[in-house]
User: What shape does this take?
Amino acid sequence: MKKFFVMTLLIAFILSIFTFTGVTAAAEGGMTPYERANAYATMHARRDILSGGEEASAATLSAVLAGFGYEISTPAFTYYGESSTGSKLSYNYKHVLGYKDNGKGKCVLIGCYYGGYEPQDSYGVGNGASAALSVGTVLYIAEALSTQASDYDVAIAFWGGMEIAGDFNVKKCGIDIGRVALYINLDCVAAGDYDYLYADDLPRSQEKYFRSVISSLGVSILEPPVYKRTASLSYGDDDPYTYTHLGLLSVNRFFMGAEVPCVNFVGGSWENDTGIYRYAGKGDIEGTSLDTITSIDGLNGGADKTADRLLGVANVVIKGVTGEGLSDALTQAAKETSSASLDNSLAFYLVSLIGTAILIGVLIFLLAKQGKDRRDAVWEVKVGGEGFDPFSDLNDRADDPSDKRDDDDGGDDVFRF
Assistant: This one.
């Protein structure tokens, strides 16, 4: 009896793994993004930032991508921090990367954040559904692109340790950014009032291309009503931006700073004053008891609504990456100015303008002062001088008999007016 019970548990465990990785479900068309998200959130409900749970979920994601035929790499990092008592701490985390070499040289990189919460703040709440929904969608995309032709290689990324502000560096992320023609980011997809496509604060060709894909599929993915710059946020010395908003809260911020064309599919409430909340009525649900798939389904009006939103985003990405117009769009995008470049340029020009204005002001002051000094010198040397009487010459002429003319009435004409 005991052996039978153990064997039953073992078989159930193996079937759950196969179901999550899509081996069993693949024969029936594979799992949907929503099903993958549910499986991931259930299997790895506790994957707190820089924890053993995050490490375990990284292992699962690596296995899934390998099952799709991707070449796997897991660059590891150590974050050094300080406890509330001042003692030194170190945490390990890793990114999970899968690469499909189509022999193109350049790749489209698709990624999202896969962890949970900062451990010191959020133990035991939610199951990180706002991130899990994006993870499930990226897994679905990865499976589809593993068998479809594209003008680019395909790279899949699950970013770890992302709540450690400023610790992300595109040059050390595990992939050569010189090979990245486009970065597609997913951030809290379906975990917010609406889903948006954000590309840049300036018109860019990759945005126009993906909006045409959205239109062709009839998917409800909105254009941000305004690119807000009201919330101040800094990710450290390497942060390319001096401002933030909902579209710039994820890792795309750093790729854009490195001049890599990006698109970001982000769920949230863009019209909020600070631009960083997921639901207007609930605020940011990340790291709270509302951050479960069940809660998000309720906020969205049902599980089918959440599932439809995830599938819509996935289909836009898949069609966009495999579409014929992508190469031309990215060739043009590479020639265009990004908002990060403009932001840095504007900061430079502003400093230059202020410096130039100060210099011009100093020069005007010096020229004005020099002019005054010259006038004073002319008056003192040529006109003035010690004992000088400005009317002496006139008086001398008045006393000179030869310089007098009599008028008809015998008066003196010298002072006639």
Observations:
- DSSP finds twelve helices and nine strands in the chain.
- Residues 348-403 form one domain.
